[in-house]
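User: Second chain of the day. Same drill as before.
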Amino acid sequence: MTYPEQIDQAAAYIRKTCGAAEIAVVLGSGLGDYAEQLTGATTIPYADIPHFPVSTVEGHAGNWHTGTLYGKKVCLMQGRFHAYEGYSMEEVTMPIRVMARLGVKTLLLTNAAGGINTAFPQGCLMLISDVIN
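Assistant: Same format as last time:
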C-alpha cells in the first residue's frame, strides 16, 4: 500500500469515527490535559487508527480527540511522534497530512522546550519565530 493510500485510510477512519475539523492542535509535553476542554469530544487511541504510529514518549497519552472548543470544531492530538523514537519522517508527518485530508486549515503545534534564559519561569509560554533545522 502506498503512503498516500495509508493517509487516506487513516483520515477515512477518523472522519467516520469522530468527524472532521477546521482547527487542529498538537499538544506537546505538559499540555495533554488541555484535551479535557473539548465539549462533545470523541476520542480514538492512536493504536486504533490505521497505519498511525503509536507515541512512546512519557507524558504523550497517544489519543486523537475531536470536539468543540469556543464554537469551533477542533481535533487535538494528545502527544506526537518523533524521529528519535525510530519513526521515519513519513510516519512523523503522517498526522499533519491526515489533518489536511480532514479539512484542517489552521494548525497549532506545541512542545516543551528547554532554555537558558533564567528570566523565563517554568511553564512560561513562548512563541518561537525561527527554527534551525
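The two ends are 30 Å apart (CA to CA).

User: Great, on to the next one.
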